[in-house]
Amino acid sequence: MPQTIRLTTPFTDEDVSKLSIGDKVLITGTIYTGRDAAHKRLVELVEAGKDLPFDIKGQIIYYVGPAPAPPGKPIGSAGPTTSYRMDPYAPALMDVGLKGMIGKGPRNQKVIDSMKKNKAVYLAAIGGAAVVVAKSIKEAKVIAYDDLGTEAIRELKVEDFPCIVANDIYGNDIYKDGVEKYKVET
Amino acid sequence: MREIDVNEIIPIVKKLCIDANYYIGEDVLDKIKEFYEKEESATAKEVLSILLENYELAANEKMPSCQDTGVAVVFIELGQDVHLFGGDFYEAINEGVRQGYKDGYLRKSIVNDPIIDRVNTKDNTPALIYTDIVPGEKIKIIVAPKGGGSENMSEVKMMKAADGIEGVVDFVVDRVSRSGGNPCPPIVVGIGLGGNFEQSALLAKKALLRPLNESHPEEKWARIEEEILEKVNKLGIGPQGFGGRTTALGVSIMYKPCHIASMPVAVNIQCHAARHKSAVI
Ligand code: SF4
What we know:
The complex is a heterodimer of chains A (186) and B (281). Chain A is of the alpha/beta class. Chain A is 26% helix and 26% strand. Chain B is an alpha/beta fold. Helix content of chain B is 38%, strand content 25%. Chain B has eight helices and ten strands. Chain B has helices at 9-22, 26-38, 42-61, 89-103, 148-151, 164-179, 197-207, 219-232; strands at 2-5, 71-79, 82-85, 128-134, 139-146, 155-159, 187-195, 248-258, 263-270, 277-280. In chain B, the strands form three sheets. Chain B has a four-stranded mixed sheet. In chain B, strands 6-9-7-8 form a four-stranded mixed sheet. A two-stranded parallel sheet of chain B has the order 1-3. Chain B is globular and about 55 Å long. The chains are: A alpha/beta (186), B alpha/beta (281). Bound molecules: iron/sulfur cluster (SF4). Iron/sulfur cluster sits between chains B (66, 68, 147, 149-150, 183-184, 271, 273) and A (79, 127-128).
């Protein structure tokens, strides 16, 4: 039976070991945003043995390209973007301590294997539920790669950011197991 | 004959762009609630209830329900007894889109050239505008913002008459199956049949404008819509692709006569954010 679990960042091994696919997770604390271009730069730094713009140990990256912030709000509507574009970069970041990723849609086998190896999880935010997500974001500030515009890395302070466990550290994949369970042969 | 100043169009298009993104139709909400009751998966139920919460919040907070506020697709039904003056009609529509996306804090998602430059036009123009000339002296404007995630899962296939209705149903179900969780299910499936290569795609898009609580006016086509919906919901994809019974909220078909040698079939996938608003001048 799926459970609802509240977690604060950074995540520990113990935190992620409690999660199974289908569980609802409410995250509180600091998370970071990043899309294609920012990922490319982060991985280049890792490969060059240089420091990243933030301490990635135990941290979570959210794949998002938000709408403009209306007056008085820290951020505009901010639902997830499709994750597979970040697949080529994700394993290298998990190898240096990344514990969680938030996006939408399935990941490839290399990413799933790396999650198992590094005890990291992939959480799905709900595509199209962009205001629910925005409401959970209390502060947003650009901390790196300002030149990338919407793709810059932002530090977000979140409270009860809602997501669903899509890949746990045990190698399970909701996009396969979930669909298998409800498929009716015709 | 009626005289209409094109500048009257600008604030109307602006409002339609904003309203479509902030306020989802009641028909979508009713369908999500109906499927919530029937859904067996606890995770799927959770997703559907988050979607309902999101649409309520978007309306209350006056924010776009999804950050992908799409390309502005604009359908015009122009009465033939209308005389437009005061400037370029299509430019007036684009100005409305420009103002709506700016003042409504909607995301600008259009690039100037599809392949080589791909520079953002920064105001979400140009809109995609389709005009039909109809009898009368009114103008009907429909604005239907369309997100990229679901549009990318759409397809046109030139089938053979021998493929029959079974072939069409199989193609549509297979298209949905291959889309999986990518188009943000639950989806709406728009199907355009007949016409020509290009018209079938436009029919599929227009089919998506039909309210979800209505089925095809012709019984034989309504039955086929039902059959496709049932098959699609047996795929198990479920909301967001997490597994479940609610893969699609509805199927809508439009057809036109076609050439004796052809059977064009277009499938336009629409995410749950089935946004469209209209006004009549
Ligand atoms: S597919 Fe629809 S709901 Fe999903 S991100 Fe795109 S516009 Fe939003």
